[in-house]
Amino acid sequence: MDRPAYIIDGLQYSNWSERVFRQLREGGVDAVHVTICYHENFRETVANIEAFNRWFERFPELIRPARSASDIRAAKREGRTAIVFGLQNCSPIEDDIGLVEILHQLGVRFMQLTYNNQSLLATGCYEAEDTGITRMGRQVIREMNRVGLTVDMSHSAERSTLEAIEFSERPIAITHANPSFWHDGLRNKSDTVLKALAESGGMLGFSLYPHHLKNKSDCTLASFCEMVARTAELIGAEQIGIGSDLCLDHPDTVVEWMRNGRWTKDVDYGEGSAAAAGFPPQPDWFRDNRDFMTIARGLVKAGFSETEMAGIMGGNWLAFYAHAFEPAAALHAEPARKSHAG
Amino acid sequence: MDRPAYIIDGLQYSNWSERVFRQLREGGVDAVHVTICYHENFRETVANIEAFNRWFERFPELIRPARSASDIRAAKREGRTAIVFGLQNCSPIEDDIGLVEILHQLGVRFMQLTYNNQSLLATGCYEAEDTGITRMGRQVIREMNRVGLTVDMSHSAERSTLEAIEFSERPIAITHANPSFWHDGLRNKSDTVLKALAESGGMLGFSLYPHHLKNKSDCTLASFCEMVARTAELIGAEQIGIGSDLCLDHPDTVVEWMRNGRWTKDVDYGEGSAAAAGFPPQPDWFRDNRDFMTIARGLVKAGFSETEMAGIMGGNWLAFYAHAFEPAAALHAEPARKSHAG
Known about the structure:
The structure is a homodimer of 342-residue chains. Chain A starts with 7 loop residues before the first strand and ends in an 18-residue tail after the last helix. Chain A has helices spanning 18-26, 42-58, 69-78, 98-105, 135-147, 158-167, 191-199, 221-235, 252-260, 292-301, 306-324; strands at 8-12, 31-35, 63-65, 81-87, 108-112, 150-152, 173-174, 203-206, 240-242. By secondary structure, the first copy, chain A, is of the alpha/beta class. In chain A, the strands form 2 sheets. In chain A, strands 1, 2, 3, 4, 5 and 6 form a 6-stranded parallel beta sheet that branches. In chain A, strands 7-8-9 form a 3-stranded parallel beta sheet. The longest helix of chain A has 19 residues, at 306-324. Chain A has 11 helices and 9 strands. Chain A has one domain (8-331): Metal-dependent hydrolases (TIM Barrel), CATH 3.20.20.140. Residues 338-342 of chain A have low confidence and may be disordered.
């Protein structure tokens, strides 16, 4: 079996360090979309970008910033891992639509409209009522379309997600989630969403976060790859990739922050529970960034051709990024929407 | 007389509008360094960048952002005016050195270490005691050198200015001031400063703000051009340009803000007085952006060759920008310092 041309991870929130960067290189990961915000406001998010700027300065032989697909191709040639910034919440734009372009100028390429809760833009997947895209949400989606900041609905509720797919002039992404047909978690997605996503040219990244897996930490590689195969039967093999949701080397206080931010005085356990409040252990076949090739082999074993496997392991994300990250004006008359539709 | 290849204004703080942008085009101004901060903190400065992003979006036929000399050459070809962002104070970096790179990423290319008062970095020209570059100031100059953010000492005191010239690995600028030998204002510069600036490869932009002119609003074109000629005798004709300090269309409340910010409860009149607190009227031969060619003709009449005149009107700034705005790493082994020295 040939190595896939590109290995791209569609989402990760690790506790970045030289150790993790070296694991990325060891695993041959060419690019990773990294979360730089859960609940931070604009100024706090800028501080997180500053931290990455320091890492880029300190470890230029391991990582580089990526603002475009061509930056990722360059990283591959240079033997470095390309880092794409993304936000899991709209908190960094505060109530100011002008910050959409500012954040794009600072290298941000994905923004979730919600993180579990109702936001100024849409409804999160943990709310009892889903009222869809808000007035500001429509304005912000239009602005994101203009500058080339991709809408990510991984943590959003169903109606909001369907409306975002419909309203966005450009394909959106669900960077890290799995189909509900396989594991019916609050964060996983219905067939309706998956079909609408693919029909509009959007991308799904399969999550390896144990709470999104059938049998959680005990999920088998065969079960995971069988789920990928069933998804490909549903929506094709061109608009799916990996979005590992790896949260390496973090203390459990970080998952508390992810779930609770500053929005509650109670304790929300998210997909965990009081008895198992911390980060769940990874399945033994996908411990960290060194194990992507295990998935590649599993996909071929599950019946994918090597070409399909290479698409899922990175090629599909790269093709999506090539359109999604450019300002609308740079795409000229080319219709971005549905350009990836099978 | 031929038109100069480029007309570049080394500093301006106008009340931007379609009217002013159209005057820039009418005057054939190819690039202008625009002030986007006097006393604003980081978040407020970002809001000012957002305002420019809106203008770029609304008036793409008149203006475009410029982050490099090649952007300015492109603007010239396109028949647009290139806009370069600069800060007249270090307030936007707050106490956070990481914001130097963030602001460079947002397109900022000049930063004054002080605006009249003592700052965290250096001493302003209105302080009684000048203690030179501070501990943080040295760190920030080094970081500015690294990313390609030019040190501007227009509003700084003499010792601080000389130390910045000495400590900076890359040439600095005094974007808008005149020689003290012609008009001994607090803001104007000694022969010592002018010589040290030029010897290090730095640039001086001649101001047309009436408080910096001999006889203020009644200054004559001949006197101004004679002053430029005497400066060229002192430091050569390659490291001088125009930095008009035009403040068009602002109400007088804006000059109050420039002078007083939030730092005083008294009223500081700066170069004005209680009897003449507002913006002074421009000399009749330089009303606004339509009058740069009047200066060009005056320079030739004062004895400059057309080549020298073209350098002063824009070519010298363009050559300086070509080095100053690039990250240090992009300049490879080429010695940036003194590369422009005559």
